[in-house]
Design brief:
single chain; eight-stranded parallel barrel; 8 strands; binds 3-methyl-2-oxobutanoic acid; binds sodium ion; 3-methyl-2-oxobutanoate hydroxymethyltransferase activity; cytoplasm; EC 2.1.2.11; magnesium; pantothenate biosynthesis
């Protein structure tokens, strides 16, 4: 398949062809996602929670993102890859934002970056777009502001919240963003925003009215321990249980001598004499 472009994503919205997005953080996961036919891979800063063992995305660094984005690219040469701008690598002035985004494209080999925020980051979004960096917005629950928000709460329940969300979405579209993630937004508000915009919305916990969906790799596969159920996630496998029992079987095989077997070993050619002193 031809790699996706931001123009084709806009067309997909018009055609009501849902855009499928999954996160990935390394080579094997991105390779499997590409082989499975995903439209877009997001190297999310959920890296912090899913892979690095932090309880928020705040400790994730630009170096972390560059390293993981590069390995994702090596596994998915023909897929559109978006990389998250981590906490405080933007909102810190236009020049620093441009330089930091450049690293994700030049060193990480991403096609685009994603940033959390609306009207308040519109000028930085516009500067990036003018510099040739496609930007995906991210509104609703924005985990980089978790210390300010105070919890992983549903957004867009109150009328003034909903109105601000719409203003933010419009500001991102006007600034040149090519798509917007809506995270934990009530279904009616996410649907209304999607109808107001010409660029696609990608929902996570934002219901059926979005133009695409995104979920976290480790969530749909239950690849964590403990696995914590989330209402907005559908799980498609229980890899955590599979991995734990497989490792348990390996441990038990070595302890009992069931592994290795003869077929796992290397023997000498008949007649070969080595180590004669033994
Ligand atoms: O970091 C991430 O995985 C994200 C998605 C949940 C949208 O930002
Ligand atoms: Na993120």
């Amino acid at each position: 398949a031809q790699p996706l472009t931001i123009t084709k994503m806009k067309k997909m919205k018009q055609d009501r062809n849902p855009i499928t997005v999954l996160t990935a953080y390394d080579y094997p996961s991105s390779k499997l996602a590409e082989e499975a036919g995903i439209d877009v891979i997001l190297v999310g800063d959920s890296l912090g929670n899913a892979v690095l063992g932090y309880d928020t995305t705040i400790p994730v660094t630009l170096d972390d993102m560059v390293y993981h984005t590069r390995s994702v690219r090596r596994g998915a040469l023909n897929t559109f890859v978006v990389a998250d701008m981590p906490f405080m690598t933007y909102r810190i002035g236009r020049e620093a934002t441009l330089r930091n985004a450049a690293r994700l494209l030049q060193e990480g080999l991403a096609n685009a970056v994603k940033m959390e925020g609306g009207e308040d980051i519109a000028d930085e979004v516009q500067a990036l777009v003018h510099a040739g960096v496609p930007v995906m917005g991210h509104l609703g629950l924005t985990p980089q502001s978790i210390n300010q928000i105070g919890g992983y709460k549903i957004q867009g329940k109150l009328e003034q919240e909903a109105e601000q969300l719409l203003r933010d979405a419009k500001a991102l579209e006007a600034a040149g963003a090519f798509a917007i993630v809506l995270e934990l937004v009530t279904e009616p508000i996410a649907e209304a925003i999607s109808k107001e915009l010409s660029i696609p919305t990608i929902g996570i916990g934002a219901g059926r009215g979005c133009d695409g969906q995104v979920l976290v790799f480790h969530d749909i596969l239950q690849y964590s321990s403990p696995y914590r159920e989330k209402r907005f996630v559908k799980t498609y496998a229980d890899i955590g249980t599979t991995i734990r029992s497989a490792i348990g079987a390996y441990v038990s095989d070595v302890k009992t001598g069931a592994f290795p077997e003869e077929k796992h070993t290397f023997q000498l050619e008949p007649g070969t004499v080595v180590l004669p002193h033994l």
